[in-house]
Write a structure and sequence with these properties.
Layout lengths: L4 H11 L4 E5 L11 H9 L3 E4 L1 H17 L5 E2 L4 H10 L13 H12 L4 E6 L4 H6 L6 E5 H10 L28 H6 L10 E5 L1 H13 L5 E5 L17 H14 L2
Parallel strand pairs: 1-2, 1-4, 3-7, 4-5, 6-7
The structure holds iron/sulfur cluster.
Iron/sulfur cluster (SF4) binds next to loops.
């Protein structure tokens, strides 16, 4: 395994006893069990463990408020940095439509700053381009590692599951945005259907679908919201996931976690 600069940074921070908050992306149930993952992260050295689904609530609110307050405007949601990068390089005509809402990662880091001051935010997720996103702003500061790298870290530090982890709980949690990593998760969890008619919003994932959807958005002025994710099926198919399960099995794991821990 190639050790990334970010993983080395995290190892150093853990070794020096820095206070750290782990922000777990909502696709984590594909690779890890709850509550064991929280206990393992705490034993690894994290002082707090929170769900990025918590920040997704703020992302949703920003998108919905924008649509409500600007009835003449149309928007392309941007929690996926690969999608925004694609639009910026391939479809500059659509840049004016990019949402300025915080991504769930950024929104969660802002909450962490407020709730757990003095701790460093570490995003743990399925996505490599989140590193580019974190590097695109100076505040809040976020260190990004993948689920795969976290698994390696557990092996290196010999952190195995233990019965003591069964009582562990998130320090901040959110149930209603746990479907976010599935294609269309933003629209579904934000209740977009309550403010827009069916033909006014679209949800797509995967590069081939993305290209078609962007063409349609450019032509069809009736579409007010385009909810896009770059990986086919959504973040459940991100490159930092270890599981060999297929997209359908991954989707079931996310739905099961969402419906089990209500
Ligand atoms: S869809 Fe893929 S590239 Fe986009 S945020 Fe999710 S994991 Fe990252």
């Amino acid at each position: 395994m190639i050790i990334s600069k970010e993983l080395n940074q995290l190892k150093e921070l853990l070794a020096t006893g820095e206070k750290l908050t782990a922000m777990l992306a909502p696709s984590f149930p594909i690779d890890f069990s709850y509550p064991e993952i929280v206990g393992k992260l705490k034993r690894l050295g994290f002082s707090h463990v929170v769900e990025v689904a918590r920040g997704a609530v703020d992302t949703n609110k920003q998108v919905v408020d924008y649509l409500k307050n600007n009835p003449e405007k149309r928007v392309i949601t941007s929690p996926c940095f690969s999608c925004t990068g694609y639009i910026k390089s391939k479809r500059p005509d659509l840049i004016p439509y990019l949402s300025t809402a915080d991504s769930p990662m950024k929104a969660t880091a802002k909450i962490v700053e407020e709730k757990f001051p003095g701790t460093k935010a570490v995003f743990i997720g399925p996505c490599l381009t989140k590193r580019l996103e974190a590097g695109s702003y100076s505040q809040p500061e976020i260190l990004v590692i993948t689920f795969q790298e976290l698994g390696e870290l557990f092996k290196l530090w010999k952190i195995k599951e233990s019965t003591e982890d069964l009582t562990a709980r998130f320090d901040l949690l959110e149930e209603k945005t746990r479907l976010y990593p599935i294609s269309g998760g933003l629209c579904q969890s934000a209740g977009v259907h309550e403010i827009l008619a069916e033909d006014q919003f679209q949800m797509v994932s995967g590069l081939a679908n993305l290209e078609k959807a962007l063409d349609e958005f450019a032509k069809n002025k009736n579409i007010r919201l385009l909810d896009i994710l770059f990986c086919d099926g959504g973040c459940i198919n991100g490159p930092g996931i270890v599981s060999s399960a297929n997209v359908e099995e991954r989707r079931h794991k996310i739905i099961k976690f969402w419906s089990t821990h209500l």
